[in-house]
Design goal:
single chain; 322 residues; alpha+beta; Bacterial polysaccharide co-polymerase-like; four-stranded antiparallel sheet; two-stranded antiparallel ribbon; 11 helices; 10 strands; 13% strand
């Protein structure tokens, strides 16, 4: 092998490198962006002013919504037993209340009461009982200064106090429509699972109406459950008395006497207190501070919207001019 070949054989070849790719500058030139925005700063200011004025107009002319809340606590079995013991002292022939079965546990009665409160039957009866069809379905605003309501004149005539008729059809809503509107838009019920407390919230155009309706709801619910328990107790007593007349066995008669005694106590409990299921802890009050529209939120959103619109307009105009 020649000297040149040997030198070429023993020489290590240089490593091969791929050419580096061309670097494309994709970074945003912040100074250029700032320059574009600064050139159109007055457009941005104008958009923000317009947006703030629009937000202020919305706050000024939109219908205000107020709310009232009433906090209630379930009547415990101990409270009911305490009331029954007072009755027991007045009826010496009645046995001690230590083992009395009122038919429902406290938890079951609370759940039942909450389901009744949010049922279409109860709310429909509430609307009819207090003549709330027009307030619920025809009122769409309240003037704080004059204390007067505004009405949906497209469906109701406040002067003649009657629902309008269009194309031969009355615009008066059905009870089901009013009930669904009340459940979805006006009343909110929340149960605190930790404490067992229940908050009933009513939202409407007038703070005086919300306070009144919230109070009525709790009172009517207590009365509704009390009436149900009263009718059930009366029906059971009548049935047990009938069974008592048909049996002559001493053991059976003693058992029936005990059952009648229990149902008699239940019947008496329904007549003791108006707060039968729920006791009012914090009553509803008239709160003149509206919950909607939320002024601070609306104004902040207006400023942000104006800023975004202004910047978008400046960038679009800059791209078009390119």
């Amino acid at each position: 092998m020649s000297e040149m070949e040997d030198k070429a054989f023993n020489t290590k070849s240089a490593p091969f490198y791929y050419p580096a790719p061309r670097i494309i500058d994709s970074e945003i030139d912040l100074r250029a962006i700032f320059s574009v925005l600064w050139a159109g700063k007055w457009w941005i200011v104008l958009c923000m002013i317009f947006s703030v004025l629009a937000g202020g107009s919305y706050i000024l002319f939109s219908h205000k919504i107020y709310e009232s809340q009433v906090l209630v606590a379930p009547i415990s079995d101990d409270q009911q037993m305490g009331m029954a013991s007072v009755l027991n002292s007045q009826f010496g022939g009645l046995a001690s209340l230590a083992g009395i079965n009122l038919g429902k546990g406290n938890t079951d009665k609370t759940i039942l009461a909450l389901q009744v409160l949010q049922s279409r039957k109860f709310i429909g009866g509430f609307i009819l009982r207090h003549h709330l069809m027009v307030p619920v379905m025809a009122i769409n605003g309240w003037d704080k200064n004059s204390n007067e309501f505004s009405f949906k004149t497209s469906v109701y005539d406040p002067v003649k106090k009657q629902w309008l008729v269009k194309d031969g059809e009355s615009q008066e809503p059905t009870l089901l429509e009013a009930t669904q509107h009340f459940l979805k838009k006006i009343m909110v019920v929340k149960l605190d699972s930790d404490t067992g407390m229940v908050t009933v919230t009513v939202r409407f155009y007038s703070p005086y109406i919300t306070e009144r309706w919230a109070t009525w709801l709790v009172a009517d619910l207590n009365d509704e459950i009390r009436q149900q328990d009263m009718l059930e107790a009366q029906s059971r007593i009548a049935y047990l008395n009938n069974q008592l007349n048909q049996t002559s066995l001493a053991d059976s008669r003693n058992m029936l006497y005990q059952l009648i005694e229990q149902q008699t106590k239940t019947l008496m409990l329904t007549k003791v207190s108006k707060e039968y299921v729920f006791k009012t802890v914090d009553p509803a009050v008239v709160d003149i501070d509206e919950i909607r529209p939320q002024k601070i939120v609306v104004m902040i959103a207006s400023v942000i919207l104006g800023l975004v619109l202004g910047m978008s307009f400046i960038f679009i105009r800059h791209q078009i001019r390119k």
